[in-house]
Amino acid sequence: xxxxxxxxxxxxxxxxxxxxxxxxxxxxxxxxxxxxxxxxxxxxxxxxxxxxxxxxxxxxxxxxxxxxxxxxxxxxxxxxxxxxxxxxxxxxxxxxxxxxxxxxxxxxxxxxxxxxxxxxxxxxxxxxxxxxxxxxxxxxxxxxxxxxxxxxxxxxxxxxxxxxxxxxxxxxxxxxxxxxxxxxx
Length: 185
What we know:
Strand order of the largest sheet: 1-2-3-4
Strand content: over 45%
Mean pLDDT: 79
Distance between the termini: 51 Å
Low-confidence stretches: none
Structural class: mainly beta
Radius of gyration: 17 Å
Shape: globular
Helix content: under 10%
Number of helices: 1
Order of helices and strands: EEEEEEEEHEEEEEEE
Largest sheet: 4 strands, antiparallel
Number of strands: 15
């Protein structure tokens, strides 16, 4: 557990049960009185899978710019070590599970139109947001689906060409995918 300069507490650990099944890094942030900080991650916690194996975070640190690091074991690398960096409230590590969770095309985007094919396991409302590489939200959309699959065409704002993240948030899960925005005159 570490203490941020604002008095908030940060802890790193592992989801799931020790030695059983797939486990992921988890970083939780608490207010100084020990209550989960709902402004951080998803209801106070950021869960990051580095792959299909047992990922186990054992330590965390605060960088001088306020961003958080968590490090630990993962069988996904040659040296069995994994490190994630959380930029403010935003996780920029994207797991293989998330990358296969929905499709977006065209990628790279050249005309500010992005098609999403989203295979949901539930129906209802969800939020889609566009983030830059600094973790700053550029815009968001609220969508709904009354079927198990959903197709959405997003009209992206005029932004500087570069790497961005599309994040889909349901009441149970967050999915993130990288996109490249290119502009051709």
